[in-house]
Amino acid sequence: MAREEVLAAVPGTFFRRPDPDSDLFVEEGGEVAVGQTIALVEVMKNFYEVQAEVEGTLLEFLVENEDVVEGGQPLAVIET
Amino acid sequence: VRRLLVANRGEIAIRILRAARDLGVETVAVYSTADVEAPHVRMADQAVEIGPPPAAKSYLNADALLEAARTTDADAVHPGYGFLAESARFARACRDAGLAFVGPDAETIDRMGDKVAARAVAEAAGVPTVPGSDGPVEGLDAAREAAEAVGYPLMLKAAGGGGGRGIRVLQEPGELEKGIQGAAREAEAAFGDGRLYVERFVERARHVEVQVMGDGSDAVHLFERECSLQRRRQKVVEEALSPGASDAVRERIAEASVRLCREVGYRSAGTLEFLLDDATGEAFFIEMNTRIQVEHPVTELVLGVDLVAEQLRIAAGEPLSLRQDGLVPRGHALELRITAEDPDRRFLPSPGRAERVVLPAGPWVRFDTWLEPGAEVVPFYDSLLGKLIVWGEDRPRALARARRALAEFEVTGITTTAPLLARLLDEAWFAAAEFHTRTLEDWLAQAVPA
Question: For residues B412 and B193, what is the distance between their CA atoms, to the nearest angstrom?
Fold first, then answer.
């Protein structure tokens, strides 16, 4: 069992849903696959997908929906 | 208009503040907490904080803007471009609050800002339009049906706004479902309206747009701009006049535009966008932007008019000061948009703090910007840093001047697209004006690493 942090590739505003009316990309405790989109970061009106780079259980998000995040900041933890 | 509130930020806020100053109008700036140090805040006579960094809570917050206008006793609001510039609801709220909205009335924004309704108006005025769905398509089944009727390749476009947001080009039916989701998401985020419509995608086309100005009863055109060089539907280089429009096409689209403005009693500045089909020479009306546009300065330079000042005069109830026979284009103007993006990293936005800043100047060089040493480029808003606008007696001389001026530009601390634009200016196809709306992306595909 290893814990992998998912880092923000870009600074911006963090979103856990594809749009305000949709469901969360993934719940805490949910299973994720490699390449699966788990959140979005919006920077300068562009949306960047945050993807899981490993397969496993998404233990927790380290930031709240709509929080402002820095580039390289840990966003979530996946247990493999 | 005695005291103007500028409901925007960045270079356009400064542009509007200057026009107001030229007319002796007092100014009020607004700012989010991310923009406390921004130059537009210092430049205005007074400034009001309107909320936290996300645009939805500040520059898109109509209540906060109206409250700022009330507390500062402003009597007019200029929305700039983007944000609430094409919100009929905001225009209406301004009017209800007794404020002059610098733009067309809410009913016209509703009608022309909604691309579906705009098509209908255009068709009624005898302006040719691109084949497409008769209205927004609701749901995947309806989209599939409309797509089949229009044929592939096609475009999904946001019914509620412009600026390239919420647009997808689909090559084949398999791309429809994912395309609709992505485009609707962008449209919802950008305009609060996720409705989409379907339109024929003309493979090789030029994007040419006609600038108009009206006072509610009379209207004039201010000739056209060429805006074919785009990346991901964002304009990068604009020119006036269009090197790709023949005199016959020029006259046809200009006259059609004035006809449409008279038909709707258009007031203020507006732009009618046309696609010129390279293959057939046909011109199709695509949409109308009911606001001042980013690229308005190229028109100003070839005609010697101040479009923003004219907007302010019209908002004050004055008739058009422009007469059609007095509008005679002279020479050629070019605009280059410099953005905080890193072309070598797939145009990754490059927020940060500008350190050293050297801005171009000299004869027939204009640099509309908010950039200054120490300026913070925040991640919340668009990446436009500044616009280099140059004039020359003809296109080759304008190009030479653009090269000279761009070489003077320098900024450290953030990555910009300026070096890439310098390479573009050296391309033979650009000098020969041999391009269409996909040329820039094709060039980028081989000019910069993927």
Answer: 38
- Over range B380-384, report the average pLDDT: 93
C-alpha to C-alpha distance for B308 and B335, rounded to whole angstroms: 17
Distance from C-alpha of B90 to C-alpha of B103, rounded to nearest angstrom: 11
**C-beta separation of B230 from B186 below 8 A:** no
Separation CA B274–CA B422 (nearest Å): 28
Q: Do A46 and B349 touch (CB under 8 A)?
A: yes
Task: Report the candidate in B333, B249, B242, B253 with the shortest Cα–Cα distance to residue B285.
Answer: B253
The one catalytic residue in B9, B168, B291, B313 is B291
Quickly tell me which residue has 């797509």 as its tokens. Answer: B147
Q: So what's the pLDDT on residue B375?
A: 95
The nearest CA of chain A is from the CA of B379 a distance in Å of 5
Collapse the DSSP code of B23 into the 3-class scheme (helix H, G, I; strand E, B; otherwise coil) and give the result: coil
ipTM: 0.70
A80–chain B nearest CA distance, Å: 29
Least Cα distance to B11 among B82, B66, B62 occurs for B82
Pairing of strands B348-349, B267-277: unpaired
Find the closest chain A residue to B55 by CA distance.
A45
pTM score of the predicted model: 0.86
| Amino acid (one-letter) located at B343 | P
> Do the Cβ atoms of B288 and B270 come closer than 8 Å?
yes
What is the tens place of the pLDDT at every residue in B103-156?
Answer: 999 999 999 977 778 888 998 888 888 888 878 888 888 899 999 988 888 999
A12: which chain B residues are within 8 Å (Cβ-Cβ)? 349, 379-380
How many interface pairs between A and B have CB atoms less than 8 angstroms apart? 45
* Torsion angle of C-alpha atoms B420, B245, B232, B361, degrees rounded to 10: 40
Instruction: State pLDDT tens for residues B330-372.
Output: 999 999 999 999 999 889 898 999 999 999 999 999 999 999 9
pLDDT of residue A33: 95
Contacts of residue B17, defined as CB under 8 A and 6 or more positions apart, other chains included, come to B6, B27, B29, B40, B43, B44
**Taking chain A, what is the end-to-end CA distance rounded to the nearest angstrom?**
5
Q: Is there a catalytic annotation at residue B3? A: no
Nearest CB among B184, B188, B349 relative to A43 is that of B349
In angstroms, what separates the C-alpha of B168 from chain A's closest C-alpha? Answer: 14
- Closest C-alpha to B310, from B267, B265, B278: B267
Residue B228 pLDDT > 90, yes or no?
A: yes
